Amino acid sequence: MRNIWIIFRKEMHGYFVSPVAYGLLTFFAVIFGFFFWNGLGYLVISAMQAQLRGEAAPMNLNEQLIRPLLSNISVVGLFFIPMITMRLFAEEKRTGTIELLATSPILDIEVIIGKWLAALGLYACMLLFSALNMAFLFRYGNPDWKPVAIGYLGLLLQAGGLLAVGTFISSLTRNQIIAGAATFAACLMLWIFAWVGGYDVSTWAQVLSYMSVVTHFDSFSKGVLDSRDVVFYLTLIFLGLFFTSRSLESLRWRS
Amino acid sequence: MITAKGLTKRYARHTAVDDISFEVAKGQIVGFLGPNGAGKTTTMRILTCFLPPTAGTATVAGFEVLEQPQEVKRHIGYLPETPPLYLEMTAAEYLYFVGSLKGLSGANLKKRIDYVCDRCRIADVRNKLLSKLSKGYRQRVGLAQAIIHNPDVLILDEPTSGLDPKQINETRDLIKSLAGDHTIILSTHILSEVEQTCEQVLIINRGKLVATDSVRNLENRARSGEAVLVEVAARDGDLDPATVRERLEKVSGVSRVLQKEIWQDRALFEVQSVKGRSVRGDLARLVVESGWDLNEMRPAAMRLEEIFLELTQEESALPEEKSETQGAAV
After folding, report:
1. For residue A140, what are the domain limits?
2. In this complex, do A14 and B86 lie within 8 Å of one another by their Cβ atoms?
3. Most buried among A48, A92, B171, B204, using CB within 10 Å?
4. Nearest partner of A126 among A208, A15, A229, judged by Cα
């Protein structure tokens, strides 16, 4: 436990003394800010038009604004995750510091979990920026907080799974660009697998579609905590971290 | 303190370390000597539990590298060939991180950081970013991280490579001052480094242990006879090297004369003599009495490659001695 904390602290330090964290947070804030502004503007206009037409439109912030915004974050996250994880192991392998970790009295799994938690921590910081925007909704509107909380939990779980995949990919190479590109490809594939299920009903298409990380987010964005989706994400996290530990182990036998 | 028995590391296409056995007693400095690619780094990586051996066993500080890697790691300090530095940290932050990794904490960790900064003379740069430090300072920070937890065994992979002569001397002095408290294995491909810092030497070539011996014995053993370089010049006019050579060969005790270089009026010869006979006086007398000038006479330095050649030849000629030396304690 203590070792995990040591690694976590070191990784967080690495993110925040370099421009990495600030760059990612800024770009995310800009992109999400645009989504928020755009979504809110559309909501306000359509509400005004409904009033002009004399309709008593059921205005639901959760359903009409927060849910699509959460889905947006879930997709935008796919683009940010490779940038968070690409350096995790690739950099250690390139600079040789992996030798320090491997010859210190610390278990591989502690290194892996510490690094993964740090990546998740940075992602959580990004989510905080989106929560700042959400805070305005609570200040001036009256949305239900429970679906929002479940939505954020879903985002963390989804990111956890993808970050674990990214951690694994980063442990395969010493080149950060390759790690980043491969993780991006993996994230994208795990998103667009869902499309197959749209037109094909054969078993393999359903399996492929089920593997999509984005479809599993649907229930969270609605504010529904479905254990199947939770288990799916937890499985992805476990597999990603398990393969990372196998990959580190193989490094010892191959290098 | 360190025992290796039949260590072997095989890869798909080649064998990096081939059946190496040795022992290192507590408090000694042992040099691991060999050309690049001889298997020094691989052996050290096995001892530090970074790589598992294909065959054989090694114990460090009483713990087996395959069975109790965590215990071994607790008792070693390791400096790889390139110091494993996180360049975005300051020296103090880095030492704090490594110290906590090795299990130190609180006031004790702070005390150790102060101590190693003082010992490795990096106190003046402790708050500088590692990326801003010169190569020499980085090497010292690397040493500082290796000793931060006061390990029983220090394993240093080419600790002086890439440093300038002044830094090399400083690093050597530092390493020497660490002996006693720690058992040290250091690798190098420079013979003089071993002569200056180490008490014992393990010579490794193509993955095989060629010899384990004390530095002095090794030099004597390699130099079966004596070799001197003699530069002879004519007093006036040209020199006939063939004549000089012929006369040098006639000196009793001389086994071989090699012509190294010839100029217009002088020539350089390497004169090898039979073991146990000093021929320098006779050579000097001969040259002077023949009416030539003796410009220079110096012992031919035994270079590492020559020692290797001799030792490998010896190995094939005397197989029983090989097994004896390999088993010998260092």
Report:
1. 2-254
2. yes
3. B204
4. A15
To the nearest 10 degrees (0 to 180), the angle between helices A108-140 and A67-85 is 150
More confident residue, A75 or B299: A75
The rounded Cα A15 to chain-centroid distance in angstroms is 16
- Give pLDDT, residue B254: 84
Return the H-helix or E-strand segment holding A169: helix A145-170
- In A, minimum Cα distance to B44 occurs at A103
Whole-angstrom distance, CA of residue B71 vs CA of residue B175: 24
Range A204-230 average pLDDT: 88
Interface size between A and B, measured as CB pairs under 8 A:
66
Q: How far apart are CA B72 and CA B21, in angstroms?
A: 18
pLDDT of residue B325: 40
Single pTM value for the model: 0.82
Buried/exposed B162-173: b ≥16 CB within 10 Å, e otherwise: ebeeebbebbbe
Q: What's the Cα-to-Cα distance from B186 to each of A55, A96, B28, B114, B306, rounded to whole Å?
A: 84, 19, 11, 25, 22
Instruction: Nearest by CB to B48, from A10, A17, A103: name it.
Output: A103
Best to test chain B binding among A104, A253, A254 (most B CBs inside 10 Å): A104
Q: What is the mean pLDDT of residues A209-217?
A: 87
C-alpha separations of A63 from A72, A117, A147 in Å: 14, 31, 10
A82 token code pair: 């490779």
* B82 chain-A contacts, CB cut-off 8 A: 95-96
Nearest-5° Cα angle at B53, B322 to B209: 20
At residue B329, the pLDDT reads: 41
pLDDT digits (tens, 9 = 90+) for A76-88: 988 999 999 999 9
Task: Give the dihedral sign, CA A228/A231/A233/A239.
Answer: negative
Total tally of structural domains belonging to chain A: 1
Strands B292-299, B226-234: pairing is antiparallel
Q: What is the pLDDT of residues B172-217, one digit of tens each?
A: 888 888 887 889 999 887 777 777 788 888 888 888 888 787 766 6
Which domains are seen in chain B, by residue range? 2-216 (3.40.50.300), 224-299 (3.30.70.1340)
Query: In chain A, what residues touch B48 (CB-CB under 8 Å)?
Result: 103
- Give A237→chain B minimum CA distance, Å: 25
Q: What is the Cα–Cα distance from B20 to B4, expressed in whole angstroms?
A: 7
Residues 6+ apart with CB under 8 A from B270: B227, B228, B229, B230, B257, B258, B260, B300
- Non-local (6+) Cβ contacts of A179 within 8 A are A82, A85, A86, A87, A89, A90, A166, A169, A170, A172, A173
Residues of B in contact with A253 (CB under 8 A): 51-52
**Least CA distance to A97: which residue of chain B?**
B84
In chain B, which residues have pLDDT < 70?
A: 215-225, 301-330
A176-199 and A67-85 helices cross at what angle (nearest 10)?
Answer: 150
Sign of CA pseudo-dihedral B112, B114, B120, B122: positive
Per-residue pLDDT at B326? 40
Give per-residue pLDDT as tens, A23-73.
Answer: 999 999 999 999 999 999 998 888 888 888 887 666 788 888 889 999 999
Q: Is A22 left (phi over 0), alpha (psi -120 to 50) or beta?
A: alpha
